[in-house]
Amino acid sequence: MTVHGFMPPYAGLMLQMAVIGRGFSGMMMAIALLKTVRRPFRLRLIDPMPTVSGGQALLTARSTEILNSRARDLSVSTGEPKDFTRWLQANAPFRQAVSAAIPGFGQIFVPKSTFSDYVYQRFSEALAERKDVTVQMSGESVSSVRPTENGQFEIAFEEGDAARVHDVILATGFGRKRAESRLVAMDAFSDGGHEGEHVVVLGSGLRAVDQVLQLRDGGFRGRITIVSRRGFLPQPHTRLPADAVFPNHPMPSNLRQIVRFVRDACAEAEENGWSWQATMNGLRKRARSLWASLPPSEKRQFNRHLRSIYDAHRNRLPADVHARLERELASGGTELRRGTALGTVRAGLRVRWAGETGESLFAASDVIDCRCLAPDLSEPVIAGLLRDGLAATDELDLGLAVNPAGELMGPKTRPVGLFAIGPLGLGSLPDIDLVPEIVTQAYAAAGLIETRAMPQLRAG
Ligand SMILES: Cc1cc2nc3c(=O)[nH]c(=O)nc-3n(C[C@H](O)[C@H](O)[C@H](O)COP(=O)(O)OP(=O)(O)OC[C@H]3O[C@@H](n4cnc5c(N)ncnc54)[C@H](O)[C@@H]3O)c2cc1C
How many A from CA of 24 to the centre of ligand 1? Predict the structure, then answer.
């Protein structure tokens, strides 16, 4: 259908959108839409989790748990990199708790709950500015998203009903199972005790470290074993800020030479009084174009052999948290063992220890999976999109193929109006599971929604 006449193209049509998932990615997307899309719209924010906050993972954290990124990197306002630090400065309870001597707050690490408060406040303010927007919070689980004959999407809920919208933004993170297991793990050990018990934590990244420290904060006194295939734990941040530095000359194009180049750059930075962390910060700025330039075989090689080392150096722990982890390991209460998890049974973990060929049973009262290497593509809504040809996986089948603005790339076409924000795009965009990259992507998606025509009109 083509629309002619004097009416503006969207007159009489109310744009309807749905964001699936109210974690940080979902809430960030809502902020970006409220601040970017100038037309009136209705927005449904869907998540079975009962709370509305600045992000589910952030809200459920204990107040002692701190984020691993410096405050300067956590603004949710595009073009205003100091928005979060200004918010911290204006926040009286936070100022009382933190030494006033810290200039500007940019270099500090803050509790996750503080960041969640900031995100939620920015969401509320953005909503208060828009009398022409309706936001509905839905406590359902989405089971499928299907296109309709008139260019919209039908969202079906597990609970039975359905809704029609023009744009769907998937913000389901690593998947519902992962989000729920985070809560179960928090609850299971919240009563302290458990002296003789043994908990196995799978994975050795930030989530695993977070889990170990949460168990201790919750009073768990039993033994903990971190089981990881490669055994690389997150490295520490520098105490003083490490501004990005990186050699200016062109990088080689082959993986082996790139590794040597980065190693040399780290050594050179240290010789010149900077730190390897500053070089890694510089590398992160180039990661996206570097990743895009590698052929699939080298991407696979990177994932197999280098990803865990890269992750340990890019996702770093604040120096105090790192020191605490080292004390925990030195005390013997927590042990790191290299091995491949083969599955869990009632009695514990089936595992093949590094250097051994046979399978062993490792007795444990609980096994908590903190690996999160890739989003769960078997989640019904994602599996359905793949089956219906509305989405495709990236070259390595790690997640969904997306462009930097989060648009889903189907096997043949790019379905207009379907987006995936955050970790779902991990195989296409390095670091898209981190706050700064999610913020940039959310504004890019909102910008596209603002500028393009509505589906019914485009169909003509
Ligand atoms: C412990 C931890 C520490 C971190 N530290 C940092 C840090 O210091 N710096 C940084 O930049 N990043 C950090 N991150 C990473 C960053 O915050 C996460 O990548 C981000 O929180 C991902 O959020 P998300 O909204 O994409 O996913 P999630 O928080 O997992 O939220 C996804 C939501 O989608 C919902 N959902 C899933 N499927 C459905 C469905 N079918 N229907 C309806 N709802 C559904 C789930 O219930 C869930 O609430 C950290 C993450 C964690 C977990």
Answer: 6
Residues 6+ apart with CB under 8 A from 125: none
Residue 187 CA, chain-centre distance (Å), reads: 22
Query: Is the overall model pTM greater than 0.90, yes or no?
Result: no
Compute and round to an integer the Cα radius of gyration of the chain. 23
407 lines ligand 1 (CB under 6 A): no
Does a structural domain hold residue 10?
A: no
Q: Please tell me what DSSP assigns to residue 304.
A: I
Reported as a pLDDT band with limits 50, 70 and 90, residue 8 is very low
Task: Examine the domain organization and report whether 349 and 443 are in the same domain.
Answer: no
Q: How many domains does the chain have?
A: 3
* Residue ending a domain, choose from 351, 369, 387: 369
Ligand 1 mean position to 179 CA, how many Å?
A: 7
For 403, the domain range is: 15-67+111-174+375-459
Give the atom of ligand 1 at the shortest distance from the alpha carbon of 68.
8
The reply to whether ligand 1 has any atom less than 6 angstroms from the CB of 170 is no
Q: Please tell me the predicted confidence (pLDDT) of residue 148.
A: 93
Mean pLDDT, range 394-407, rounded to an integer: 94
